[in-house]
Amino acid sequence: MRFVYSRWDDDLYTRLKNLSDLMAIFNYLLMRLNGDVQKTLKLMERLQQQGILDAGYDLEEFANSLEKARLVRRSKSGLKLSAKGERQLRRDAFEAVFQKMKASGKGQHALPYEGGTSDELLPEKRGFAFGDSMQAVDFQSSMFNSITRTGGLGLNLEERDLEVYESERHTSCATVLMIDVSHSMILYGEDRITPAKQVAMAFTELILTRYPRDDLSIVLFGDTARQVSIKDLPYVGVGPYHTNTQAGLRMARRILLAKKHVNKQIFMITDGKPSMITRANGQLYKNPIGLDPMIVNRTLDEAVICRKKKIPITTFMVTDDAYLQSFVKRLTELNHGRAYFSSAENLGSFIIWDFVANRRRKTG
C-alpha cells in the first residue's frame, strides 16, 4: 500500500527536533494524523529514511513495545489505539502542557492544593477524593464508618471510610470545551488543530484526576455542532467546514443547562470569524466573506443568552487578525466573559492556567 502525505512544513521539522524521545514524537504525529496508529508508524519510517529521525531508533521494536504495553491493539485493519493508549495519550498531553507552563514560569503553582487552610469549610460532608486536604477530614465520622464496615474497634481505617467537609474551593463546575474544526484550523499549511487537541486532552486529564466532582463535555463545531466523548479526542480532525459558532454555543448552553452543577462555563478554542448560522427553520446560511451582519448578530444573540443563564464564555482565539479579534471582543463584552489572543504554541498555558485560576475564586 502506498502512503501519501501532504506537503511538509518547516514548523513540523522544528517541532520534531525539539521533541525529546521517540514516544513524544509518536504522540505528536498520532494526534496530527487523528489517532491513526498505522499511518503514524509508517510516517515515522519515512522520516527516518529522510534522516529526520535518528537512524539509531529501532522502529520495529518500538511498535512491538507499544503492543506489549497494551497501548495499541491488533485489529483486522492493523494496529489501533487501545483504551489504555487513549488514556496514556491524555496523560502525556497533560505532562507536556504543564512542562511548558513550568518552563515559562507559570507552573510553580499550577494546581490549587496549597494546604487548604484558607478554605472555608462548610457543614456538608462527602467522601474523600484525590487532592483533598487532610485538614478537611472529619475523623469522628470516618472512624464511625470504619467501625460500621468492620464490626470492630480496631484501627482499620481505609480511604473509603474517610469523610471530608465541603469547602468553597471544591464547589463543582460543569464545563463545555468547544473546539473549532473548520477548515481554517489547517489553512495555509498552519496546523492549529493538533495543539488544540493536545490542550483538550490535557484539560480533560486535569479535570478527571484533579477535579473528579466536575463535569466536562466536548463539543466540536464546523458547519454544525456535535458532542463527542472524551475517548474520541485523539481521532478528531478538521473537515471542509465553515464556522458555525452559533450552533456550537447553542449546543454547549443546552448541555450545561441540563447539569445540576452550581457553576457552569464554556471554553471555546477558535481561529476565525463565524461564517455560518442555523436559521430558525433549520436551514444553514453561510457567507465566508467578511463579517456578515446576520451571522454576527445571531452568534452574539447566543452570547447574550448564555450571560442571562449565568454561563460565562472564555474564548481562546489563535489569530493575530485585529479585524477578527474585534468580533471576539464584542462577544466577550456582551457575555461578560473573558478572551485571550495567543498563538497555538501558547494555547496550553492560557487555557489551563485560566481554569485553575478561576477555581481559586469563591462562588456563591
Explained architecture:
With 364 residues, the chain is α/β, with parallel strands linked by helices. It has 3 domains: 10-81, no CATH class; 121-169, no CATH class; 171-359, 3-Layer(aba) Sandwich (Rossmann fold). 41% of the residues lie in helices and 17% in strands. The strands form 4 sheets. A 6-stranded mixed beta sheet has the order 7-6-5-8-11-12, with helices on both faces. The protein has a two-stranded antiparallel ribbon with strand order 1-2. It is flat. The N and C termini lie far apart (60 Å).
Entry keywords:
alpha/beta, Rossmann fold, 3 domains, six-stranded mixed beta sheet, 11 helices, 17% strand, flat
Task: Provide a quick synopsis of the model.
With 364 residues, this protein is of the alpha/beta class. It is built from eleven helices and twelve strands.
CATH arch. level architecture of the largest domain: 3-Layer(aba) Sandwich
Helix content: 40-55%
Q: Briefly note the CATH topology name of the largest domain.
A: Rossmann fold
Mean pLDDT level: 82
Can you tell me the overall shape?
Answer: flat
The CATH superfamily of the largest domain is: von Willebrand factor, type A domain
Strand order of the largest sheet: 7-6-5-8-11-12
Write down the domain tally.
3
Spatial extent as radius of gyration: 23 Å
What CATH first level of the largest domain would be assigned? Answer: Alpha Beta
Sketch the topology as an H/E string, one letter per element. Answer: HHHHEEHEHEEHEEHEEEHEHEH
The main β sheet shows up as: 6 strands, mixed
Q: In total, how many beta strands?
A: 12
